[in-house]
Design a protein that fits this description.
The structure holds two protein chains of two kinds. Chain A is α/β, with parallel strands linked by helices. Helix content of chain A is about 40%, strand content about 25%. In chain A, helix 5 crosses helix 7 and helix 7 packs parallel to helix 8. Chain B has a single domain, classed as Rossmann fold (3-Layer(aba) Sandwich). In chain B, strand 6 and strand 7 form a beta hairpin. In chain B, helix 3 packs across helix 4 and helix 3 packs parallel to helix 5. The chains are: A alpha/beta, B alpha/beta. Chain A: This is Nickel transport system ATP-binding protein.
Chain lengths: ~260, ~270
């Protein structure tokens, strides 16, 4: 693996549950993340979006297993456990439940850095810069806070700051703004957009909101009942959707604006 | 006479623990709002602006610290037994989180039957017929009646909550972010359903949301709240007329419909 990988690839991922893994939840999913681009993974609730992310990070829940497929970085097969936190950072949906209520922000940062084997001295100087970069303007004060002392927007910025500190070239963002206030959502999306450009991040953006896709994504993959039904550029998806599931998603999204899908 | 009217209501919350009382937080600071029969009002605001608190005061779940809420001209605190029953029947509420809004041990039949048992004079047979009718109204199969909340999807459960609200033939339904958590195609069909029911049953709606797109498509007038106060009220047709900074912030936060409109959205 080169020091600065260009691609993160999921190849023919199959995820199953049940006795003898006889119930397939995700089937033959292949996706590729490229540095500097945002790939949106969209689909209805229960289509397997979040499971696919968990599989990519090697954190599938008990009773669910990956029964096929490979994860590659620049064409080389890697175990998900080795990539998590180092090559691929994560930000999650509910910032409130993602933090330990009895630990300060500083302890969270240290815990993450220790877990991925980064030396503290190396990172220490970068912590304040990372916090400032995500819009937490008083880093010293923020680092002393507990989760309950912070708003949902601040916590989400903190989670993004920790992801940045890991210096991972790829980022999995699972519904990063779904639980946030609308005004905060817009600011976080703008922040993510800037960071993708600044750090040349390759992002897997999981969302059910086509508005978020329109705002941030370069490419879109559409999942339906655990199967990939369409992959295309964001313009293709919004203007010339092919599969009926994609058409339904985009059509229902546009209807909220009183617009219709072009035939 | 308005169906429901809040006059200059205020509400503050305070928590108490072993070490004493916390600072009190003003959730509502002198708000007035009236809802007429058959109309749809959008109540728009950011998280924490007090819109849900106002909704809870309006349907009598909580009492205002100051000010009054009137149901057909009578103060909620001084309703007679018969008036209170009529109020409970006429004003229904649907919440955002359908899972926590139902008893996990009730099947769908029992969930919908609850208001029928308490607020109507229907006997068991008539209730069963009404339940079937309601399930049909919200486009759910009759077979779902025997299922538990854990056995149905979030979208289905929210429709059952809408059916429960419709059950006693209310005059007003307060929807507190009731469709926000649904997938966008389910959201579209839920709104179409609500609009259809409004035509056939003449129900008024108070649509509490942070999403301008929903009120724009659905409400006749929009009331904007910020920091516990009503800051602006405009007919839906003229959202372009928004002047208050809080309204403009919400307008700017609407996600773009199409990728090429990104720049316009910023």
């Amino acid at each position: 693996m080169s020091l600065t990988p260009k691609h993160f690839t999921l190849e023919n991922l199959t995820i199953a549950t049940g006795v003898d893994n006889d119930r397939l939840l995700v089937e033959d999913l292949s996706l590729q993340l490229t540095r500097g681009r945002v790939l949106a993974l969209v689909g209805a609730s229960g289509s397997g979006k979040s499971l696919s992310c968990s599989a990519a990070l090697g954190v599938l829940p008990p009773g669910v297993a990956r029964i096929g497929g490979r994860i590659l970085v620049d064409g080389e097969v890697r175990p998900a456990e080795m990539l998590r936190g180092r090559t691929v950072a994560t930000i999650m949906q509910n910032p409130r439940s993602a933090f330990n209520p009895v630990k300060t922000m500083r302890e969270h940062v240290m815990e993450t850095l220790t877990a991925i084997g980064r030396s503290r001295r190396d990172a220490e100087g970068k912590i304040e810069a990372a916090l400032r970069e995500v819009g937490l303007d008083e880093p010293e004060a923020v680092l002393g806070l507990y989760p309950f002392e912070m708003s949902g927007g601040m916590l989400q910025r903190m989670m993004i700051a920790i992801a940045l500190l890991s210096e991972a070239p790829f980022l999995v963002a699972d519904e990063p703004t779904t639980d946030l206030d609308v005004v905060v959502q817009m600011r976080i999306l703008a922040l993510l957009e800037g960071l993708v450009r600044e750090h040349d991040l390759g992002v897997l953006l999981v969302t059910h909101d086509m508005g978020v896709v329109a705002r941030l994504a370069d490419d879109v993959a559409v999942l339906d009942h655990g199967r990939l039904v369409e992959t295309a550029s964001v313009d293709e998806i919004f203007h010339r959707p092919k599969h009926h599931v994609t058409r339904m998603l985009v059509g229902a999204h546009l209807a909220r604006y009183g617009m219709e899908l072009a035939e | 006479m308005s169906l429901l009217r809040a006059e200059n209501v205020a509400k503050h919350y305070q928590t108490y623990s072993l070490v004493g009382a916390s600072a009190s937080r003003m959730a509502l600071d002198g708000v007035s709002l009236s809802i007429e029969e058959g109309e749809t009002v959008g109540l728009l605001g950011r998280s924490g602006c007090g819109k849900s608190t106002l909704a809870r005061l309006l349907c009598g779940l909580e009492q205002p610290g100051q000010g009054q809420v009137f149901y057909r001209g009578d103060d909620l605190r001084h309703l007679t037994r018969a008036q209170r029953r009529a109020f409970r029947r006429d004003v229904q509420m649907v919440f955002q989180d359908s899972v926590s809004a139902v008893d996990p041990r009730f099947d769908m039949r029992a969930i919908i039957a609850e208001p029928l048992r308490h607020l109507t004079d229907l006997d068991a047979r008539a209730r069963e017929a009404r339940i079937r009718e309601l399930l049909e109204m919200v486009e759910l199969p009759a077979a779902i009646a025997g299922m538990l909340p854990s056995q149905v999807s979030g979208g289905q459960l929210q429709r059952v909550c809408i059916a429960r609200a419709l059950a006693p033939r209310p005059k007003l339904i307060i929807l507190d972010e009731a469709v926000s958590d649904l997938d966008v195609h389910l959201q579209a069909s839920a709104i179409a359903l609500l609009a259809k029911l409004q035509k056939s049953e003449g129900i008024a709606y108070l649509f509490v949301t942070h999403d301008l797109r929903l009120t724009e498509r659905f409400a006749e007038r929009v009331v904007v709240m910020d920091a516990g106060r009503v800051v602006e009220e405009v007919p839906t047709g003229s959202l372009a007329a928004f002047k208050h900074p809080a309204s403009l912030l919400l307008k700017d936060a609407v996600l773009p419909p199409l990728p090429e409109m990104r720049a316009a959205a910023q």
